[in-house]
Amino acid sequence: MSISLSSLSLLPLWISMAQIQQGGPDEKEKTTALKDLLSRIDLDELMKKDEPPLDFPDTLEGFEYAFNEKGQLRHIKTGEPFVFNYREDLHRWNQKRYEALGEIITKYVYDLLEKDCNLKKIAIPVDATENEPKSFIFMSEDALTNPHKLMVLIHGSGVVRAGQWARRLIINEDLDSGTQIPFIKRAMDEGYGVIVMNPNENYIEVEKPKIHIQSSSDSSDEPAEKRERKDKISKETKKRHDFYEKYRNPQREKEMMQLYIRENGSPEEHAIYVWDHFIAQSAAENVFFVAHSYGGLAFVELMIQREADVKSKVTAVALTDSVHNVWHQEAGKTIREWMRENCCNWVSSSEPLDTSVESMLPDCPRVSAG
């Protein structure tokens, strides 16, 4: 029988447990604690100690990648597409590398929205204080003043941010496939004002502060013997915890906490906030939405919360693979009737483009995306 390096690193624990089990009743508690420890050790996590450091470049150039004239991501030296399995048998490390590249691409797309599409980056909440967590949206110069037409784009859930439809498509296909840029440029060419929502930017992450627990002996009126016993137990508990952490998390990744952005703590909140503070204030007689995946659900929630206002301004809604559900979201009859007349959901299908696709729900027409 072969024993992996990960298994060998657990031998001291197994030996200790065997020795404890040979002891008397006083050792039962230690046995239980060790069994609990072993049950919580994840062998996949244990393999982290064989990983290279999780230290990745913060620029495309550092990754040795660039977008070519066709908008395809290619290796600077070899011209090859992105390779996920950069290191064999290190899936977690490869995933972290992919995520690091994805964050760079998010900033790259933001830059394109401003420089290539001439959109303005607008901080929200609009009345945020200097130290308050903030998000942002993008919009064209005439988004609020165009008297005729306004286009609003909402992406789906996950890691994507403003200007993206799918990170995977940006990395593996091209910018035109995975970003909203072709939609933005065409809309502007056809005389629309444009607002690009950012519904997944709901919080900022900061490192968790380290909590220093004051020793009971510093502040207790307990007898000295009892304080010493409690301190001893506390130290032993910390020692066991540190021992477990050594195996569970050798890379010692930082523990982070989330600070949510006021009135934008979810995609649904964000859609309502952008409606109230921007879209509802715009001069456009006709507002059009393009909403992908979870963006469709966020739009339906907006309708539920602002039904009369939405009906008065919105002319049509193009949904793409929307995951909304009028029953679960408790959309009323008048909303469902309006959606049947003013919305269309293009869904993944092998049928030719615009072929009708059967729907289980009585909301809006579903047709093939081709």
From TrEMBL:
Q: Which InterPro entries match?
A: AB_hydrolase_fold (IPR029058), Arb2 (IPR048263), Arb2_dom (IPR053858)
Q: Which UniProt keywords apply?
A: Signal
- Return the annotated region ranges for Disordered: 208-246
Q: Where is the signal peptide?
A: 1-18
Q: Where in the numbering of this chain does the Arb2 domain appear?
A: 56-353
Q: Where is the composition biased (Basic and acidic residues)?
A: 223-236
Which domain of life does the protein's organism represent? Answer: Eukaryota
Q: Protein name, please?
A: Cotranscriptional regulator FAM172A isoform X5
Q: Which organism is it from?
A: Erinaceus europaeus (Western European hedgehog)
Classification lineage: Eukaryota, Metazoa, Chordata, Craniata, Vertebrata
